[in-house]
Amino acid sequence: MPSADFARVVDKELRSDEPLFADLQARHLIMADAATSTLAPLLSQYRTRKACIEHGPKLHIFVVSLRCHHTCAYCQVSRQPLGQSQFDLPGDAAAHAVERLFEWPARDLTVEFQGGEPLLHFERITSLVEAIEARNRHEGRNIRFVIASTLHDLTDDQLAFMRDHRFELSTSLDGPEWLHNANRPRPEKDSYRRTVEGIERGRKVLGEDAVSALTTLTRRSLEAPVEIIDEYRKLGFHSISLRPLSPYGFARKTETRNGYPIGDFLRFYAVALDHLLSVNRSGYFMEETYGRMLLGQLLTPFSHGYVDLRSPTGAGLGAIVYDYDGTVYPSDEARMLASMGDRSFALGRVDEPVTAWLKSPAMQRILAAGVAETLPTCADCAYVPLCGADPIDHFARQGDTIGHRPTSDFCRKQMGLFDLLLERWETGSGSDRQILESWAHRATRREAQPEVEAA
Length: 455
Ligand code: SF4
Known about the structure:
The structure is a single chain. By secondary structure, the protein is an alpha/beta fold. The chain has a domain at 59-358 and 441-445: Alpha-Beta Barrel (TIM Barrel), CATH 3.20.20. 44% of the residues lie in helices and 11% in strands.
């Protein structure tokens, strides 16, 4: 709408016989007469967009061990050496966690096993799966099991168990061999080979679609957008996730070595998006998952299931983390902050009822800063219906749960990506627009399943 028309609407100077009046009324942007107008369609749209808050957390992350054989410079958790079994989730805490899982009302539950490297404590995974399935015989929930793992040292017995219980695998692949090995070193320098072998073995036993991969972008990665995407294509992936380095855990300690300004990420993303569009134009479907979720928000009335980009926040409302020591967190980021010494976002202990966690000071603090529509700057932002609040991210970056959007990397990333995707959608060729729309509608189909994090 031209600014002059907009000003006339705001000043109530638009006449009811003008075509623009009818157009705005049809789009529920203005209301002529409260007695005859109905807000029902608008409310229905709003309810659809916010449906993800109706049933409580769907994503439940069980940290079965902090042990890991990697020494990644940007590790986001306090990984521990292989022999340290005191960093494994004990049986009594696991039993309490299963009780808590079923206190939540959601019909669809994703149970994600994380670490460290969760395969190093596989006997806890098997006992948890058996306990959850036994309990579920009379609960009747739809349960999806996921392991976030490097997939190194995956055994045939583990794969057979996963096949019998319909597991999905989520791994980390940072790009071509030179980049992956540099980002994720093992003493034997064979991290890439082991991951690729794990992907192939997982696909063979669990099915092609049961294995997904996420990318973590270090400063080194930003020089290789095309190579990273081509590597995913070479390995037969139809989805790639390009996420900037997070400000948590060891990633923050090594920020000066691996970190970069968010502007560098946005420049990288623009090149990556153009390459992805050309890959799709050549006939090979490949989507970028974060872009897919933002486009789904832009072009459909539905919400994605991504817990880091919701309003009200997904922390504690969309996800729960049961840590190896029995502490419960509202998100993986809160757990990472705790590993850095700040436990202020812990909701409580696994042997306390869910209602106690919801009343905890940590949850009150998160909720007070967790609705984007009420936050300074977001309240006036055109993108707020599509964006989210992330109080823990803002606390980690700016020392305050509300934060200051004009200087917030979270906000710069969101605005930059929304601007870029809208620009490509509006000015791109017909086929580019079709490709972006196909991503958006795919996001809608995936709404019921929360996005998972990789190791
Ligand atoms: S783009 Fe920034 S200001 Fe706008 S809603 Fe998102 S975080 Fe808030």
